[in-house]
Specification:
heterotrimer; A mainly alpha (482); B mainly alpha (103); C mainly alpha (118); A: 482 residues; mainly alpha; 19 helices; 76% helix; globular; B: 77% helix; 0% strand
Chain lengths: 482, 103, 118
């Protein structure tokens, strides 16, 4: 057991993480100094911190730094994900401000915990050591348990948090046991060392079990069938802003770690785990889309829609290679825009007591507010994958990658599913444009929310028409790990 | 002194893991589920320490055990707070009775 | 020498068997009648003045939970303390950062009234 003096790490390389952590602590401390009063300033501070962290990540993506931090990669791949996390966090903070005040839970710790969850996601995206990935995962998961139950006087929110914890702890136990087995079999936690050991050894049942257990842990976080049972209940019961956050950040972070672990440490077992993920992907797409068809609650519908999207993303993962992974990265970026945007419109309609959560509440929205109906139209079309929105571009590249890498039939299943999904997205559009309004909907318009919806719509249309810039960024990022 | 082999540690770890998983799946009381979760975490922690000593010969596994202890504590504190909130609201901590969200 | 532990194993077995036997016998032989007196928390004492399932103050749980957290975080200080000299200034700065973050948490608990008994 030798011990060498660790070198002082290059702090510039982990600037995004440091900024997010400091902002989180600062938000908490300022909240303590002024217990009462408006919390808008704290939201702004949190958003500013995330924007700064995102800018640093973008700079690091352009000019990657060599770093000497063990178990922590500062490659372009990690930075691409960190930009997604910061963007998603920024949008979620924007849609939260007025919603929290309305529900009477305007508290500073909300923003602090969101920032900590994002810190956990960043650590997951950068980790090249199983301990680092696990700590990031737990930091994110514990923050999300708190956020799911944040409306502590609402029974639904309580229930969502308890259910999330029960199933989350089950999956994290399995994931941990998988790590333990990989460690026992290879004698290392470092992904590159594990890769060397796995390549040299012959395939045993135990090693396969370790791979499956770790895959199950990740599958829970990305809400893949059959690990999706928590999703509809937790999405419905949690505060809507938290649901928006949960549907994007953790999914992206889990994919980030999943891609890194499976393509580097278990890269030589590709044939084995590809079969596994083909099954997961088909089950996820089919179940998600079919069950979404008969939902009447918009949050539950979006929950099943997010399950289905995890399935499309896994098609890209199965296709693999530079094409497959870069199309996944692009799609995750687009997904952040359209999903948080859609939940933003749900918040727009929200009134105390769960009104605005039903799909019927969208009836006649175009008569009440032309702009908000148009915004929802863009999000729904993008989720359904209809041109010229970004959702189409994203799905196009994923299915193209599958076709090029020899999974034509998988791409066909994906396209068919996407056609099925159009039905339930179009149903929302129908309600908005074809049905007369019932009881007059009241909109909670606020500057921050409008700004976020505008950013999301502009982002979706811009990426939909010019996907090249984002795709190039995704390609450069992917080359750093392949 | 008899030497305790790696297999013995793994056997104990496996039993703890099985008991814990059994508890998480079958118990209806939220506190019992939490106990099951603690067993699973500690099963992994025990195995990490054992592998660290027998297979790896470095301290990486033991460091992992320390992190597991701390994370398990953080997680159980959060769930205890949640359970208290649920009890104050619904007057029960039986999981099958906490079921207003329809699947 | 595993053999030297054999008496202890034997003792354990005998104790276990005897205990089970007695419990089993008392279960099948003994009468089972529930009376009001038996349902009392203290069967032979004075009648209870207040309901016995009185709840503890919720403050108690909060303090207990804060205690668990801060108690367990010390787990990271032991390795540092053992290697204090070899880790030098770098280790010291690391621990100060760690404790600084914990202090923010403590300040939060304090300001929100989590540490007050009344």
């Amino acid at each position: 057991m030798t011990l060498s003096m660790p070198p002082i790490p290059n702090l510039h390389a982990i600037a995004p993480e440091i900024i997010v952590l400091l902002t989180s602590l600062l938000v908490l401390l300022i909240d303590l100094i002024q217990l009462r009063g408006k919390k808008g300033g704290l939201a702004f501070l949190g958003a500013a911190g995330l924007a700064l962290a995102g800018i640093f990540s973008y700079k690091l993506l352009q000019h990657p730094l060599a770093t000497d931090i063990p178990g922590f990669a500062v490659d372009a791949y990690a930075q691409f994900f960190k930009i997604i996390f910061c963007l998603a966090g920024l949008m979620v903070i924007g849609i939260s401000v007025r919603y929290l005040t309305l529900e009477g839970f305007s508290l500073g710790e909300y923003y602090s915990i969101i920032l900590l969850a994002i810190l956990g996601q960043m650590i997951m995206a950068s980790g090249t050591h199983l301990l680092v990935i696990y700590v990031g995962l737990e930091l994110m998961a514990i923050s999300l348990y708190i956020l799911a139950g944040f409306f502590k006087h609402h029974p639904k929110s309580n229930e969502a948090a308890v259910k999330y914890f029960l199933l989350g702890s089950f999956s994290s136990g399995i994931f941990l046991y998988g790590i333990m087995m990989a460690y026992g079999l290879t004698g290392s936690l470092d992904l590159s060392v594990i890769a060397g050991k796995v390549a040299g050894a012959e395939l045993t049942g135990l090693l396969l079990l370790a791979v499956i257990m770790m895959g199950a842990g990740f599958a829970f976080k990305i809400a893949a069938v059959p690990f999706h049972f928590w999703t509809p209940d937790v999405y419905e019961g949690s505060p809507t802003s938290v649901t928006a956050f949960m549907s994007v950040g953790p999914k992206a972070a889990a994919f980030a770690a999943l891609i890194r672990v499976f393509s580097s440490a278990f890269g030589t077992l590709r044939v084995e785990w590809t079969t596994l993920f083909i099954c997961l992907s088909i089950a996820t797409m089919v179940t998600g889309n079919l069950v979404a068809l008969r939902q009447t609650n918009i949050k539950r519908m979006l929950a099943y829609s997010s399950i289905a999207h995890a399935g499309y993303l896994m098609v890209g993962f199965v296709a693999g290679g530079e094409l497959g992974i870069s199309s996944m990265l692009l799609y995750l970026r687009i997904y952040a825009f359209m999903n948080i945007g859609a939940f933003g419109v749900v918040i727009l309609l929200n009134r105390v007591g769960g009104i605005g959560d039903r799909i019927d509440d969208f009836a006649g929205l175009s008569k009440v507010s032309r702009a908000s109906a148009f915004v929802m139209l863009v999000f729904m079309l993008s989720l359904a994958g209809i041109p010229p929105t970004a959702g189409f571009a994203g799905k196009f590249y994923i299915f193209m990658a599958a076709v090029k890498n020899g999974y034509v039939w998988l791409a066909v299943i994906g396209v068919l599913n996407s056609a099925v999904s159009a039905y339930y997205y179009l149903r929302v559009i129908m309600r908005m444009y074809m049905v007369e309004p019932g009881d007059e909907p009241v909109l909670n318009v606020s500057t921050a929310l409008s700004a976020i919806l505008l950013i999301a719509v502009v982002g979706i249309i811009a990426i939909g028409i010019f996907p090249g810039f984002c795709l190039d960024l995704a390609r450069t990022s992917v080359t750093s790990i392949l | 002194m008899p030497v305790i082999s790696l297999e013995s540690y793994l056997l104990v770890g496996m039993m703890l893991f099985a008991f814990g998983m059994f508890g998480i799946i079958t118990r209806k009381n939220a506190i019992s589920v939490l106990l099951g979760f603690e067993l699973v975490m500690n099963a992994a922690g025990l195995n990490f320490a054992a592998f660290s000593h027998f297979t790896d010969k470095t301290i990486h596994g033991q460091v992992f055990t320390l992190f597991i202890i701390a994370l398990a504590a953080a997680e159980s504190v959060v769930i205890l707070a949640l359970i208290i909130a649920v009890y104050q609201k619904m007057n029960t901590i039986q999981i099958d009775e906490i079921d207003s969200l329809k699947g | 020498m595993p053999e030297s532990y054999f008496p202890i194993l034997l003792l354990l077995l005998i104790v276990g068997a005897l205990a089970s036997l007695i419990l089993y016998l008392s279960r099948i032989i003994g009468p089972h009648e529930m009376t009001d007196a038996k349902a009392q928390p203290f069967e032979s004492g004075i009648p209870a003045a207040t309901p016995h399932h009185g709840s503890l103050s919720i403050r108690f749980y909060i303090i207990a939970m804060i205690f668990i957290l801060f108690d367990i975080e010390v787990v990271f200080l032991y390795p540092w303390a053992v290697l204090f000299r070899r880790l030098g200034l770098f280790g010291f700065v690391e621990v100060v950062i760690f404790l600084g973050i914990l202090t923010v948490g403590l300040a939060y608990a304090w300001r929100k009234g989590g540490l007050e008994w009344e």
